[in-house]
Give the backbone structure.
Amino acid sequence: MNLGSVEAVFFEYLQERGLRQTPERLCILRRVYAMNGPFTADTLLDDLRNSQNPLSRATVYNTLELLLECRLVAHHQFGRFGSYYEKSHGRRQADHLLCTNCGRIQEFCDPRLHAIMQDAGQALGQRIQHHQLHLHGVCHLFESTGQCPHFESSKADPSSSSQPMH
Ligand SMILES: [Zn+2]
């Protein structure tokens, strides 16, 4: 991942929109690209509040909207676990598997899905541009022990994105 090219995309977008390149916007962009896997706006906000230059909620939400518009960030709605964001520049699109008990989110990539979408698009006369696929399940351990391996860390805040990504 070349952060320079990400920043170039953002600056070009801001310029086209007549918006300023502020240090706050740049700080948020860099923090977003330091995140691993999907994260919530609140996680990002907390993360920034713990940094040397705390930023306002409005600035963080506003900048996330800009990053969505210029496609540097993707948005996922994970059912009751809420709204998640994820860096998207130069990344192969991943699909997500969500444990409905503990909220652990895992990514997977299967090239067979690409072929299925191409076939569906061709048959229905559309060029597929993007897709979202969320699989909902429960961790194997939940079925045998009644306890998810990540439940303790996630039950206080089901929207927390601090669960490990595999
Ligand atoms: Zn689980």
Observations:
- Confidence is low (pLDDT under 50) at residues 154-166.
